[in-house]
Every structure is written in structure tokens, then in C-alpha cells.
Amino acid sequence: MRYIPNRFVHIIAIVLLATGARSQSPPPDHVVSVPVANMYSRATDDSEVVSQAIVGMNVVTIDSQEDWAKVRTADGYAGWISAAVLRPLRDSHPYATSEATVQVESLFANLYRETDVTAHKPVLTIPFESRLEVVAEGSGNDAGWMEVRLPDQSRAWIQSGDVVRDPRPLTIAQSITLAKRFLGIPYLWGGRSTFGYDCSGFTQMLVRQRGINMPRVPIYRPHGTELSQSIARICNREICCSSGHLPATSPIPACLLVAVSSFTIPRRNIQSFTSAD
After folding, report:
1. Could you say which of 29, 43, 132, 273 would form a disulfide bridge with 65 (CB–CB 3.0 to 4.6 Å)?
2. Which residues pair with residue 65 across a beta bridge?
3. What confidence tens digit (pLDDT) does each residue in 135-193 have?
């Protein structure tokens, strides 16, 4: 039986506690309708970007102020977002949670008004992990395309090669291969999409690909350090700067290290508590 160091047990315990807390939150009531929406620390865009929400993401509204809404995303993180980018859920049914759903597998995917990339500019360009509701599979001249319903109820076409219907949890080796696809993606404070990631956002994404929902920082250990900083120290690498974030343009090195080290724990030990929905 493989020995599991206490430091890894501490990290998993933090994830379990945060996951349990999220299970008590109310159901989502809105969905994000733009490719990427910034979440701010206050109800103004003249404040810190603390996180982001991507198109198709269901959120819970916990407060409102004029043209702003304070929302909580599925990872338990809260921030202020422009109300203009949100759409109320139909009959309180979460968007893109039915069987007829696809997830963007390409780093970016263009949506078009018709099955022709030359006739008009894209309706939207959306990032990796975006989820969409499928209306129909293209056939005949439209073969290789899917018609999708967007959060604002409009329709568009996406190429089938850009999406996957049933994403499966990755192995460690597959996670490393995936991580390398993001080399060159810019670092972006608060970022959690292929338009730009920060350390926490990129780490969360890799963990989700392993089938595990992980909270965004700050998640504090008893001595007051953030989870991302703790993981960096576990790896014994001086990668993160004093704030716990990378000074470089890409967060790949630290987060790739996290993928290799954190997931050596057998999945059966945590699967029943942290499996992604």
C-alpha cells in the first residue's frame, strides 16, 4: 500500500471541507451569456478582478446593487458581476445539464450563424470547457456541425471537432499531456479560461479534468497560508512569488507540478466525496 504523506492529507482535507460547504448552497438562478465575465471584489469594474465565469456557467445570485449582481460560482467563490451578462434560468432549470450537452475541447471554438466559416464573422468565440445545449446534429451539407442553443436562447452552429459530448476523467499521464497544450497561454490575475489563467484557475481546471471539484483560493490551512502556496512548498520549488502567484506570463510550470504531485493519491480515497457533477 502506498504511503501518503501527511502534507497531502492536509490538502485533501481542505478540499473535502470546502466541497461539503458548497453542497449546502442554494440552486443556481442565472447563467452567464458571454464568453468570459469578470467577477470583481466590489460592484464596479474599477476594483480587483477576483475570479471569472465563462459562458454556460450557472451561478447563484446572493446580492444585487443597481446594475450589478453578486454571484457564487460552482467552486464556491463569490464576486460582483455585471447583471447585463447574466440570463435568468428557464423554470429554474440549470443550463447545459441535460444529456443533449457538449463541452468545448479545443482551446477556443468559434460559433457561427450558419455552417460556413467564410460567410460571416463568428457570433462568439468561446473558451475551453464551455458547455452548450445541443439542438440538432448537422447532416447532409451541414455534416460535421452541431446546432446549439446559447444561454440567451439564440442559436448558433459549432464544428463537431471542437466539442466532446461525454468528457471522461483523465489519467495522470493524460493530465500532463493536456497541461502542455496550454503552454503560451498568458497569465491573467483572476483568470480561469484559455483567454488567460492565474495559478488557482489553472490548477482548478486540471483538477476538474481528473473528475474532482476543487475550491478556488483563498482556502486557508491552520497556519494561515493559502492552498496554492502550500502546494508550491510541497513541491519544494521556488515557483510562486510572495503573493502565491506566478510572476511569469504562463502558469504552466507550477500547475503542471501540482498535477503530477497531488494526483498520486489513489482516487478511491477521495472519489466519493469530491467527484465532479
Report:
1. 43
2. 68
3. 999 999 999 999 999 999 999 999 999 999 989 999 988 988 898 899 889 999 999 99
The Cα 129–Cα 132 span in angstroms is: 10
Q: Comparing C-alpha atoms, which of 244, 115, 246, 263 is closest to residue 187?
A: 246
How many Å apart are CA 36 and CA 53, to the nearest integer? 6
Angstrom CA distances, 189 to 40, 149, 220, 232, 246, stand at: 11, 31, 19, 18, 10
164 Cβ partners below 8 Å, 6+ apart? Answer: 102, 103, 105
Strands (E), the chain: 30-32, 36-40, 49-54, 58-65, 68-72, 78-82, 86-88, 101-104, 108-111, 124-127, 131-137, 145-149, 155-159, 163-164, 192-193, 196-197
**pTM score above 0.85:** no
- 110-147 pLDDT tens trace: 999 999 999 999 999 999 999 999 999 999 999 999 99
DSSP letter, residue 244 = S
Closest CA to 134 of 116, 156, 149: 149
Grid cell locating 105: 475541447
Separation of alpha carbons 272 and 258, rounded Å = 21
> In this structure, what C-alpha cell is assigned to residue 137?
446534429
Residue 76: closest CA among 115, 109, 104, 39: 39
CA–CA dist 264, 142 (Å, integer): 44
CA angle 102/195/252 to nearest 5° reads 100
| Contact yes or no for 80/39 (Cβ under 8 A) | yes
